[in-house]
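Here is the promised in-class demo. Please do not try to memorize the tokens; focus on the logic of going from shape to residues.
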């Protein structure tokens, strides 16, 4: 049985890592459907440029998903400017394209901190706060593909770990989980 589609117009959506890439494309699609969007990003200047280009009252806010205080401030400011948050798109991530054998330990640690621990930290904070917006966790993992395993192993492994912790940590609370992963070709 198919689920009934819900109207998005007027919904408030907070997107982590919304200044470029998947986050920017998601924000653009949501603004076109009438959502009020807050994009959070480390690169505040680019986030402001993106927000201005998207229009629709989109706001740009500073966000570092490796810092609990930064995420809390992002949510508070998004809600202050746009109203209660209906949806959080847990999207922030990095993907340095480097052959695995050339990737530094510092780069791999940064990927894990942003791509795996950042989203997990966000889920834990939502549980601790007792808030229950819809949560969309974006995981662009290509684990198992030959190119990914040799060229971009760090991002694939760190991003691939988002799905299970997100589902398990939220199953006991009223947080809706939607995983967005690339389709196999």
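The designed amino acids, position by position:
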């Amino acid at each position: 049985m198919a689920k009934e589609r819900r109207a998005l117009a007027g919904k408030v959506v907070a997107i982590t890592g919304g200044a470029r890439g998947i986050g920017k494309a998601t924000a653009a699609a949501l603004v076109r459907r009438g959502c009020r969007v807050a994009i959070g990003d480390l690169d505040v200047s680019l986030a402001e440029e993106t927000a201005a280009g998207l229009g629709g009252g989109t706001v740009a806010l500073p966000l570092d998903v490796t810092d609990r205080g930064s995420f809390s401030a992002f949510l508070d400011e998004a809600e202050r400017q746009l109203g209660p948050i209906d949806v959080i798109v847990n999207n922030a991530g990095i993907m340095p394209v480097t052959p695995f054998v050339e990737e530094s330990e510092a780069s791999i640690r940064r990927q894990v901190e942003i791509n795996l621990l950042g989203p997990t930290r966000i889920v834990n904070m939502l549980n601790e706060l007792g808030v229950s917006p819809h949560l969309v966790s974006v995981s662009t993992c290509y684990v198992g593909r030959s190119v990914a395993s040799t060229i971009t192993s760090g991002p694939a492994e760190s991003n691939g770990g988002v799905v299970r912790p997100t589902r398990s940590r939220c199953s006991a609370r009223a947080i809706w989980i939607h995983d967005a992963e690339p389709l196999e070709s």
